[in-house]
Amino acid sequence: MVSTVVRPLPAARSHTARTVTYAVLGVTLSASIIVAFNHRKANASIVQSSYFAVRKDSVALSLLGPNIRHRDTYPWIHGEINQNRGNIDFSYALKGDDGEGTLHFRCVRRSRSDRDWEIIDWSILLPDGRRVRLSDDAIPSTV
């Protein structure tokens, strides 16, 4: 003979805490992935080369002044760096002792078998809207 115990069911708990936990976890994971991808772009050889080249460029030095560096503590790289497809197009903010601007670099490789890259844009966009082309002798060599 089977006996059953008759007692009231426990009160249903709210799922609000679990929902909030999953939402916070999702936002944290998404932010971590975005920061990791930006870190990968910031450490790409072409970004490092462009940063070195712009710091030595005479046009950039005359516009921004000496001591050119990233505007923010953690530089945010906008754009695409896809060497396999032959498309590099990125920009990031800079500042010097005399001003600030946004460096823009764009180059393409016309065919997969072609080893040469064609530089489309190598310039600094100033806050007043002027776009100033940097000198050709300071073009980054690592593409």
Structure description:
It contains three helices and six strands, in the order H-H-H-E-E-E-E-E-E. It has helices spanning 16-42, 45-56, 58-64, and strands spanning 69-70, 78-82, 87-95, 100-108, 118-125, 131-133. It is elongated, with a radius of gyration of 26 Å.
How would you summarize the topology of this molecule?
Elements: H1 16-42, H2 45-56, H3 58-64, E1 69-70, E2 78-82, E3 87-95, E4 100-108, E5 118-125, E6 131-133
Antiparallel strand pairs: 1-3, 2-3, 3-4, 4-5, 5-6
Characteristics:
about 140 residues, alpha+beta, 6-stranded antiparallel sheet, elongated
Helix content: 25-40%
Task: Figure out the total of helices.
Answer: 3
- Give the overall average pLDDT: 89
Order of helices and strands: HHHEEEEEE
Class of secondary structure makeup = alpha+beta
What fraction strand? 25-35%
Q: Based on CA inertia axes, which overall geometry fits?
A: elongated
Q: Point out poorly predicted stretches.
A: none
Radius of gyration, Cα only, in angstroms? 26 Å
End-to-end separation = 82 Å
DSSP strand count: 6
Assembly status? single chain
Sheet of most strands: 6 strands, antiparallel
